[in-house]
């Protein structure tokens, strides 16, 4: 039905939620299914009708931004991710991720398709944006690094070196959370960073479910780290580091709809468990209570 993109920051004011509603799929049209969702893009309101009781008043939900079925990929990028990328180029950290049920179009929103250019998603648009901006800034030097991992069945895999070890470990230092042993690649242009992403995608875990012919069975995290060197007021160089995390989450799903058994059931249970944990984190980040505990990650 819809996928959400969330931009995260250090306070509840920096967590923004956007909802995108995709059009009916070919299978849905074949089965003569009807749309029960309407989007008020001006007010940021989503209305959902009850399929069992069409005469009942629809339920309404408010979000920071609402995109209907006719929105372009470029508009989604410009209004959701572009401000975050701009802040990363100034040395801040930012995250964009797509969340929703399997088959709702999360991967299309995040990656899109290479051709035509207008169908490219958030990640390739970010690639172009970053290197376009770097080419225009004369008073700073930049070094861009990329890494790509997936979390599959609660284990972290390096998608750029998938055979290096079975799984990597998550650690925490005074500088923040990091994945020990995760490989990074220095990239100097759009084609190089795109090659890194395509290489990692070949190693990503996907599979067919009753709800999606090619469902992402893992959470993927593509991280761009930008080292920025500039001259300070004292004439000495100093370094700032910005980090952009772009996440394509595995789709949430119900066993009753997917008919999952065996490995697929194990995958689904782990996916839903981790998405539930993510929900707890978002709730804590957006809470108005002071001093609330922010849950930490447990994948290993």
From TrEMBL:
| Sorted UniProt keywords | ATP-binding, Coiled coil, Cytoplasm, Cytoskeleton, Microtubule, Motor protein, Nucleotide-binding
To which protein family does this belong? Answer: Belongs to the TRAFAC class myosin-kinesin ATPase superfamily. Kinesin family.
Query: Where would I find the Kinesin motor domain in this sequence?
Result: 14-300
Q: Name one Pfam family in it.
A: Kinesin
Residues binding ATP are: 100-107
Protein known as: Kinesin-like protein
Q: Keyword Transport, does the record have it?
A: no
Q: Which PANTHER family match?
A: CENTROMERE PROTEIN E, KINESIN-LIKE PROTEIN
Q: Where in the cell is it found?
A: Cytoplasm, Cytoskeleton
Question: Which InterPro entries is this protein grouped with?
Answer: Kinesin-like_fam, Kinesin_motor_CS, Kinesin_motor_dom, Kinesin_motor_dom_sf, P-loop_NTPase
Cited SUPFAM superfamilies: P-loop containing nucleoside triphosphate hydrolases
The main place the protein resides is cytoplasm
Q: What stretch or stretches form a coiled coil here?
A: none
Keyword Cytoplasm among record annotations? yes
């Amino acid at each position: 039905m819809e996928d959400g993109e969330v931009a995260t920051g250090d306070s509840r004011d920096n967590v923004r939620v956007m909802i995108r509603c995709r059009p009916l799929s070919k299978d849905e049209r074949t089965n003569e299914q009807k749309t029960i969702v309407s989007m008020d893009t001006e007010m940021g309101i989503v209305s959902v009708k009850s399929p069992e009781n069409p005469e009942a008043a629809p339920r309404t939900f408010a979000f920071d931004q609402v995109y209907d079925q006719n929105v372009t990929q470029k508009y989604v990028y410009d209004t959701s991710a572009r401000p975050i990328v701009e802040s990363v180029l100034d040395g801040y950290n930012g995250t964009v991720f797509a969340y929703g049920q399997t088959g709702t179009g999360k991967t299309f929103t995040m990656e899109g398709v290479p051709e035509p250019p207008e169908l490219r998603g958030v990640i390739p648009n970010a690639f172009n944006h970053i290197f376009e901006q770097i080419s225009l800034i004369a008073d700073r030097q930049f070094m861009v690094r990329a890494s790509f991992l997936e979390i599959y069945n609660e284990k972290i895999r390096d998608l750029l070196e998938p055979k290096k070890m079975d799984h990597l470990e998550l650690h925490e230092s005074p500088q923040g959370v990091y994945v020990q042993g995760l490989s990074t690649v220095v990239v100097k242009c759009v084609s190089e960073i795109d090659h890194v992403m395509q290489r990692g995608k070949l190693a990503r875990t996907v599979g067919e479910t009753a709800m999606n012919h090619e469902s992402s069975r893992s959470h993927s995290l593509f991280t761009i780290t930008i080292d920025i060197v500039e001259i300070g007021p004292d004439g000495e160089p100093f370094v700032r580091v910005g980090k952009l995390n772009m996440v394509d989450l595995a789709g949430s799903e119900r066993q009753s709809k997917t008919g999952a058994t065996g490995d697929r059931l194990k995958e689904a249970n782990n996916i839903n468990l981790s998405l539930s944990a993510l929900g707890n984190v978002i709730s804590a980040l957006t809470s108005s209570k002071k001093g609330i505990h922010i849950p930490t990650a447990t994948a290993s």
